[in-house]
Every structure is written in structure tokens, then in C-alpha cells.
Write a structure and sequence with these properties.
- The protein contains eight helices and nine strands.
- About 45% of the residues are buried.
- By secondary structure, it is of the alpha/beta class.
- It has one domain: NAD(P)-binding Rossmann-like Domain (Rossmann fold).
- The chain starts with a strand and ends with a helix.
- Strands 3-2-1-4-5-6-9 form a seven-stranded parallel sheet, with helices on both faces. It has a two-stranded parallel ribbon with strand order 7-8.
- The structure holds NADP nicotinamide-adenine-dinucleotide phosphate.
Length: about 220
């Protein structure tokens, strides 16, 4: 199986890439030209260094792929560098979906967020990304985690690791089985990136087309 991973250089990508490779997948890892010199992935033979706005280059990079995964996103604190929700999140989702269709890639996986489509600019933007995927992607699966927690050991993405208060992830894992509150805890509590990444690999192996996976279902799939 050939998989194109957009956002491979980030905190989630750094965890997903080795897991997907260990599962036997052939990977094409997107790296932005401006990031190639800063990330170890810039020199990786699996890297596809291109601007996602270059439709021809992107279509060629996607040709022959079985799936595209987008892990791309930015945050307000990075707006000053030129990345915005419109360019990084919404814009790249549109580029990737359009190119996937043009290249005949049959499946699209989107990393979104719990609460997507809710109030506030971030959740509104996540809802917009999901709407693009639902309306235009071929078969799709959307993942909606809450706060992500990086592994203690291991490599660091271009924007560092994702930390949550000590013990918070373990508390979520322990409480998510408690009747009455377990579902809410699983949905809104922090989740280890390994759990999310394993769930993504499993969806690649056994597709869950048209599903939005979050909360208890996400924890169980990535267990
Ligand atoms: N972190 C959390 O707690 C959390 C919770 C729920 C959902 N999410 C969502 O999960 C996704 C991944 O989060 P993360 O923490 O792994 O992100 P991250 O470490 O900040 O990585 C972001 C990735 O997106 C890439 N990117 C940003 N703008 C781009 C653009 N215009 N063109 C191409 N690539 C671009 C970055 O590339 P460069 O390396 O070139 O900058 C990087 O690979 C995001 O969509 C985020 O909103 C995160």
C-alpha cells in the first residue's frame, strides 16, 4: 500500500511515519521546501519536497497512491510566520483533496479535532476542512482527537512535542471505562499520539469509509 502523508514533519507525523512504515506501507512524505533544511525528513528518500499549491507537482506525487493522510494544521501563535487557518488548514485540505481526485487516489484520511464545526475560529475552520473532505474527497475517514500527547521518548517534530499536564493522559485512560462519565472523558481528555497513529494505520489496513472517529471509538481502535 502506498500512502502520501501531508504534515509528516509535525508532532503527529513523527509518530505516524515509523508506525506506518513498520506496518509495511510504502510512504511518500510531504515536506515543504522551506522546511526541508530544518527537518531530518528533508533528506529522507521518501520525501516529496514541494509546495502543495503546485497542483501539477502534487498530482504527480500522488499518482499511484492508495491513500492520502492530512495531518496539517497551524495555530494562532504561528500566524506571524505567514501560516494561517485559511492557508495552512483550509487551503491545503482543498489542494490535497483536488489533487487526490485528479490523481485517482481512492481514499482520504483527515486529522481534524473534537468539536469541529463548533464555535470559535479554530473549530469553525476544522468544520470547513471536514466539509471539503466530505463533499469532494473520494472515500474518506475523519479523526477527531482531543488534546494530543507526544511520547516521552522519540523524535521531535518541526514544532516540538505536544505536552499535556503530567498524569492527564493516564487519568483519561483510567476513567474512560467508568459508566456515566467514560464517554465524555474519552472524547475530551488528552490522548497519546501513538493511540491516534495506530488507529490511522488500522483504518488504512481495514477502511472505515464515511466514518468520523472520536472518543471511545478512537481509543479502542488505537489500543
Ligand atoms: N496538537 C493537538 O493537541 C491537537 C489536537 C486536536 C487536533 N489537532 C490537529 O492535528 C493536526 C496535527 O497537529 P500536530 O500537533 O501534529 O501539528 P504540528 O506539530 O504543528 O505540525 C503541523 C504540520 O503541518 C504542516 N503545515 C502547516 N502549514 C502548512 C502548509 N501551509 N503547507 C504544508 N504543510 C503545512 C507543518 O509543516 P512544517 O513542518 O513545514 O511547518 C507540520 O508538518 C493539526 O491539524 C491540529 O489542528 C491537534
Amino acid at each position: 500500500m502506498v500512502v502520501f502523508i501531508a504534515g509528516a514533519t509535525g508532532a503527529t507525523g513523527q509518530v505516524l511515519v515509523p508506525l506506518a512504515a513498520a506496518a509495511g506501507m510504502e510512504l511518500r512524505l510531504h515536506v515543504r521546501p522551506a522546511t526541508a533544511a530544518k527537518s531530518p525528513l528533508g533528506a529522507d528518500p521518501r520525501a516529496r519536497v514541494l509546495d502543495l499549491g503546485d497542483a501539477d507537482a502534487l498530482r504527480e506525487a500522488l499518482r499511484g497512491c492508495d491513500a492520502v493522510i492530512s495531518l496539517i494544521g497551524t495555530m494562532r501563535s504561528r500566524f506571524a510566520t505567514g501560516d494561517t487557518y485559511a492557508s495552512s488548514d483550509v487551503g491545503t485540505t482543498r489542494f490535497l483533496v483536488d489533487a487526490a481526485r485528479a490523481a485517482g487516489v481512492p481514499r482520504f484520511l483527515l486529522l481534524s479535532s473534537v468539536g469541529a464545526g463548533g464555535s470559535g475560529p479554530y473549530l469553525q475552520m476544522k468544520g470547513e476542512c471536514e466539509a471539503i473532505v466530505r463533499s469532494s474527497a473520494p472515500a474518506w475517514t475523519i479523526f477527531r482527537p482531543s488534546a494530543l500527547a507526544s511520547p516521552r521518548a522519540g523524535t521531535v517534530g518541526t514544532h516540538g512535542k505536544r505536552w499535556v499536564p503530567p498524569g492527564a493522559t493516564a487519568l483519561t485512560a483510567a476513567l474512560r471505562g467508568v459508566p456515566g462519565i467514560g464517554g465524555l472523558v474519552a472524547r475530551y481528555g488528552p490522548i497519546p499520539i501513538e493511540v491516534l497513529a495506530r488507529a490511522m494505520v488500522r483504518v488504512l489496513e481495514a477502511p472505515r469509509d464515511g466514518e468520523v472517529i472520536e472518543g471511545t471509538a478512537l481509543w479502542e481502535l488505537g489500543a
